[in-house]
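Interim report, section 4.2 (structural modelling).
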Amino acid sequence: MEDVWPLNIDARSPADPVFVGVGELPSGRYPERGFVMGLTQVALLALKDARMTPRDVDTILLIPNLHSFTDQADLIFSRMVEELGLAGQAKSSFMLHSGGSTSDNAVRVASGLIASGHARTVLVLQCERWGSADVREMITMLSKYGIPGEWELPTGVQFNAIGGLITRRYMAATGSTPQDMASVCVTLRKWAQLNPNAMYRGKALTVEQVLASRMVADPLHAMECPMLADGAVGFVMTSAEHAKQRGLGTRVRIAGSGGCVSHYSIGQEKDLAALGWATAAKRAYEQSGWGPKDVQFAEIYDSYAAVTAIAVEGLGLCASGDGARWFASGVADPGGKLPCNTNGGLLSAGHTGVGGGTALLVEAVRQLLWRAEPERQIAGCRRCVVGGTGGSYMDAQVLLLERAGSGGFQ
Amino acid sequence: MTSRIVAEFRDGLARGELLIQKCNECSRLNMYPRYACPHCQSQSLGWQRASGRGVLHSFTVLRLGAPEGFEGDLPYAVGVVKLVEGVQLLVRLIPDADGDWQGYRCDDQVKFSPMPAEQIQRRPCAWFTRSR
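Predicted structure of the assembly:
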């Protein structure tokens, strides 16, 4: 079986799927912001950004929430069609789920629907109320997610322990120090200072503070663990032809994607210091014709520093084994040569459940549309890598995004 | 309802044995046990007793935020063990004499440590300790 195959669409194709708008609500604790309220508000923001109204949408894809299964049923059973006034008009509305990598898979699904003609304009929505939920209840729920009940649940493993297992192996394999690991969190916090929607805006962080915080799951300190947050993001995709017809000159296309599902159970991952990143990156680069040198900035899932350090290595953005030290060098900081997680990431913008990865994707698109706030906009950026992963870091998903340029259809 | 493969694996632990699923068709080993052999898709599957020897790929000590029902176990350590047979699994690690796991290192040689049946009933998983 071939490992990589070409995309059937390219920048010259009228059916090329493109991003034309994004929306976001602030992350943090917003108990007054209801679930459907958040979804509605973020839908209108994303559509406004795309210079559209709900009437322009034929398909709605929902990114799941984790705070309540009752609320999740509203996503499954098309509530947003009714809320947005699309009853009778919407062709289809459904929820997709692969945990933290859902946004990457949602982009693949939306792209396929658009490129094949099954959809013209797709609205993707996400809202989470983790920050306002009962913490005890969320720990219990999260301790059963992505963990095989028969074989691993009896050990007492949970999400921070999974982060600890990956971090420990990563540090042993690379010689990264606790200071190197903490520096990843510090880089993210610097970016959060520039993002008005970030949970930790206005709260500086140092390596010393991280290392002085309580040990949670050796070698992970409390400040290296993500904080559950409320948040909502949305984005709009359509075909290049339709975007052009509507006079949407600025858009973002998908140059290629790659993925690798390396395990389901954390106990079955062959190399906890590698995961699926190198394989996923190779597939994405081959499909797009890009190499690591084409990447101008990165937005990579970061619920734990080691996961992101492993990813930047697998993506070839730094030498193998140097991921955490690469962050410590400041290269990924604001003003650095290769900005990484410019919204502050899950660790500093807030872990909005399945939405954490979606927020990073939305930040990538926003940057490429040149619509970020001026203090964090990467001037003139055109190419970005988005990295997602879910569950017990079962998969590595890579999207290569580019600002649509002149020439060809685009 | 516990399925047959789960019940048999846990019965093994309660007898002080770590079992690895073995395919009756292709003789390959499967961990975790499966309902069909992932190598040849046969549904004729048996067991082989593990040597109990392996290498600690990684481990962590959970000190805060235990799942419901595990609060009384804190602190406790879980680790990924690669058995000499070529399969791997998530285990609980027995602390050193000082009650902690500071002496453990990645790539340590570890061995399966049989536990009393009552302990397996409460926590039906494999327990390992350092060999040296």
